[in-house]
Batch of 2 targets.
Target 1
Amino acid sequence: MASPFALSLPQPLRHFFNLFPLYTHPVIDSPDKARPVTSPTLWISPPFSPDADVLSSDVECLKWQAYLALRGLSDVAVRWDVAVDGALDNRLPNLHVPLKTLPGASPDVKQQDDGEGELLPAHLIPEWVDGQVGGSDALEGYASEAARDESRAWVSLLEGNVHAALVLHQPTSTSFLSLLSPYQNKPRPLEAVVSHPPAPLFGISSLLPLYGTHVNVDAIEQQYKEAISSLSERLGTDKWFLGSSSPTALDALVFAYLHCILHSKEHTLRFEVTRRVNLVAWERRVQSQVRGAFRPVEVVRQP
Amino acid sequence: MSESKLSPLLGSRDIVLHLWPKHKDLLSFDPASVAALLYLQLALPGHFSVAYCANPDLSPSGQLPFLTQGLYHASGLSSIIAFVRRHPNARNLDAGLSPLETAQLTARIAHVDSCYGDLVNHMLYSLQENWIDVTRPALISMLPVPQRYYVPARIRESHKARLEAVELWDVPEVEEEEPEEQRRVVFGKRRKHRPDPEAHHFKKTFNREQVVERARALFDVYDRMLGDDRFFMGNEWPTTLDVLFAAHSHVLLDLQLPDPLVTSALTSYPRLVAHCRSVLSTAFPPNSPFPPTHQQGWLSSLRCLIPWPRTPTSHRSNHAALEGSPEAREIERRYKLWRWGFIAGSLLVSAAYVLYAVSIVLVKDGDVVARIGADDAPDDDDESEEEEDEVGGEGEPEAEADADAAAEE
């Protein structure tokens, strides 16, 4: 612009352009202001009773809540006013952490923290927790290598058979407003949970395009009952699953499923667990421990 | 479960197991079917027969394998196992395990079913080379003509939801048929090379190494558990876990796949390969006869094109299962007798009516030629006179005769 060879605007054109001046609009103040994050905040889906509880109603979110609590963290804030679409990958839970707690951040980055923090998806939470409370050993807290191998089997039993029964009996919202509103917390569809793909509703060789699934309800319920009875048998009178001396990721998962089953509206699901006294007692004991680690964040509305 | 609650005394006593058909060296094309076959062969040898059918719609729940005994049916591997356990003659494969071990077995079975099953489905349905060269031709050869054009693609699509959820789905959305050098010349101008539509789609990148790692993690667990024993749990006889694991290994090892991603990982564990062979040889010793098989015809192949909503509990078993038994044949014979007897009887009665109660007059050229039926039938209102025209050209002269008669009057 200051160069002597720069072309300048011819005079008539400048007069013409002056008829359309540049107008800068004033700053618009939005009522929602992001508060600086000072303590790690977990974004979860709303609890069963938002006034009285901090434990989420969704199994995924509750699993990670229990994981954080059982790994020894305390004073973690929770908030449930964020919709699912606002989360990373459209999946809650997310962990919003201040930059200074990030294990891999350099000191310069930590100093420049202006309260924005970093949002972590669920699969990065264990790494963060390792940075906070110290890394776990190769056995991941289990008593032996055989126990660790066995824990993989229990994880897939829970995430397969038990989760399928929960998804099957999830109450579907049938109100007109829920049909209109685009933001719905879609549960994991049944086809992704069951290991053998279920048959389509009208048969695989019919002329109509594939629609719906014909779910083998009896098979799922029978597998669920076997799963719960074997879970109860394995727990026995141990303090933590598989005889570990301290809580592990498997305990967090089992707690999440038991808590959701005991709060579900479906009678058959609940009955299987309430029949087993040791599971109920275990869940109650862990519940108080998990609940103590969280505090809800007060949602402040700007006038 | 879809089990009938009716008494087993109705219908035939034979157990028929319906499976996906054999393909080359495999016992059946689907690991669950192989597992069901091995389980029955170990628990109830000689008491069942096998029917290969490639139509999952015949099953009450829409999935193969399924089992019928008379009017009972059990669909799905877990239901079949539960059914066989309750059979009085069945050998309990899990006998001798403590309750704790039985509980662990349930968890391990779920683990193998989900993780190993996902890996096998990935190999068969997701890897493009395997699909084009092996799986799709195999499915096409099993299916009859109308179904073979669209059912294989539907079967592949049905696995998409699960494999995508576990990040084992890598099917190119756009068929990469055109190499980049050849661009079609449209109206003399070169067609613009469109940028990859996936570039802006935030898809998780698929990594073959991750699959091999996952397979090795699974095989490590079971290799450690097997140790140097012949079967898991250290028993002399295979348990349910052995059967399920060997079924999946059998499908991977004995099907020659062009892209051996997981198979090469499996063959690096010789103890697991030996385990698969020993389970198969225990189930099918060298000189034992294979259970009787019948190939099912596709009688209802066209009927399957019609979309029919499924009833949740259908007590009707497969038609072919009833055909073989002598009781069923007896019932069929009686029905046939009655059916044809009824038709013959009704024909007889109508002939008698015609002969004795009605007179039929044959008129040709205005003259009465013949009279069938009651000769002395009075001209009462009972009588119904029917004119039967001769076949052919007599109709016209008669009509003219009538017209003349009418014109004369």
Note: Strands of chain A lie at 41-43, 76-79, 94-97, 118-120, 199-200, 213-214, 294-296.
Target 2
Amino acid sequence: MDVKGVKDTLSWLYYQYLLVTCSYVLEPWEQTIFNSFLFIIVAMVLYTAYVFIPIHVRLALKFFSGLGAGQPESTVAIMT
Amino acid sequence: MAAALRNGRAGWRERETGRPGPGLGAGAGPAERLHPAAPYKVKPTVEHHKKVFSETFEQPPIYVPVLTYMGYGIVTLFGYLRDFMRAWGLEKCHASQERKEQKDFVPLYQDFENFYKRNLYIRVRDNWNRPICSVPGPTFDLVERVSDDYNWTFRYTGRVIKDVINMGSYNYLGFAENKGESLNSVAEVTMMYGAGVCSTRQEMGNLDKHIQLESLVAQFLGVEAAMTFGMGFATNSMNIPALVGKGCLILSDELNHTSLILGARLSGATIRVFKHNNLQSLEKLLRDAVVNGQPRTHRPWKKILILVEGIYSMEGSMVRLPDIVDLKKKYKAYLYLDEAHSIGAVGPTGRGVVEYFSVDPRDIDVLMGTFTKSFGATGGYIAGKKELVDYLRAYSHSSVYAASMPPPIAEQIIRSLKCIMGLDGTTIGIERVRQLGVNARYFRQRLQELGFITYGNEDSPVVPLLLYMPGKVGAFARRMLKKNIGVVVVGFPATPIVESRARFCLSAAHTRQMLDTVLNVLDEMGDYLQFKYSRQSPGVRPEACDEPDFEIED
């Protein structure tokens, strides 16, 4: 029974997506084009996130921790 | 305790400290309980000049217009794609196209209106122009039609959808009916006079029925004289040119009907538009007009005519009549009031906004109205001083060139006017007027409580319910028809692009049961399609009951 509830909710959510993006008025082949276009863009965003976010986060942490540790030397250097 | 209840104030205190009472939640503070924001029990008709003028035009949360624009953007992109395919022959073009020989001339179908029509309107146009095959009363029958090629062509399946609740016809007082003893007089008149008039008013088309009708209309409105015309739209567009001309100024409301705009343009007068129902804007224009006069010569304007409507049919709002009459007297302008939707529909005895605001009808220079809406007929009238009406009889284009009102229609209006005024000896008319007011207030109140955004004055029988997104407009109309309710949805050219709406026109013939059916369906659909955008808290209301519920069990 829970599967049916989940399926109903998903189909209601898909219907809301159709209404909000106004794909409801488009013909089926146009809806397919639009859905695939959106899916490709979302897939590319997710792939880019998967590949690049860990590297960027690590670099950012290194930058900030490096900055905090090296701070006393740099201010002394400037004053002298 | 019973004695304390009979004493009003102690009774309220008892209720507050005692049980909360059905439906009054713990969250409601004492102020709200004493003066509930939206009492379920419909207010009786109070003195209208003391009544608070309450109109709301609530704005939705910001994501709604953003998503609406996004939706229109997506459909526009697909529109460009389809137009490209049609232009390069990848798809057959069902819309109007130029012929091969015309391709080198100025393009005919490239403007935005045609683009919009081809690519958005046609996709959802099965919700308009639906053929009806019965009298448009509170319920009606629709001819079923389906489309095989996405609304480019339709075919009739042969079935008839019966007993669809009619929430779209302008049947305010329920005179669109085909049963009733008083209809016999209409049949008799048809037998006696025939169906057509075959002449204009100034030639052979001036019947005794017209004279009888006009004196009745003048008596109904409380003015000296009235003149009737065969078509409501033509009443405006043909008579404004007779009243004003070059060298006159017309101040017209932003949201005036096309007939008023057409009449104003045909007259050749200068037209200036003031913001909808906004008296500061109107006063500024009046002062500017009186001080500066005509554009280059600075001569004074020959006439200044203010064009307003009683109820604006797309917004459901009412004109602020007493203030406009004061302004007009101060600046010596003339007032033309178009009561197409308000005559018969508002006011304690159905005499329109003039009665609703308790304004003297002699203060309004030209009273215009139509018989299409509350009287179940066709045609329009212009009423006012006798000299005005006599002038129009001679100089109006409509009386010289247009055929006059057919006799059966005149008799239908006479019978409905007699019913409303009570001259036929029954109280049916006044009951209907009262019932319409009750229906209108109940429906609006319940819609507010359910969480929908509606526009307009709380007493007007025209209720626009905002849907905003174009996808929802099509889905809403189709689903409502599946549930056997016929609604009118309005979209872009008639309304601003963001504010598409469904417009409900209430009728005195709607029973409380029909309204409850419609409201329950709307409630479900509001949750399913998600258009309950109102952020105002619904009024606290007790459970549905007819009597005031003052008993307290011990």
Note: The two ends of chain B are 9 Å apart (CA to CA).
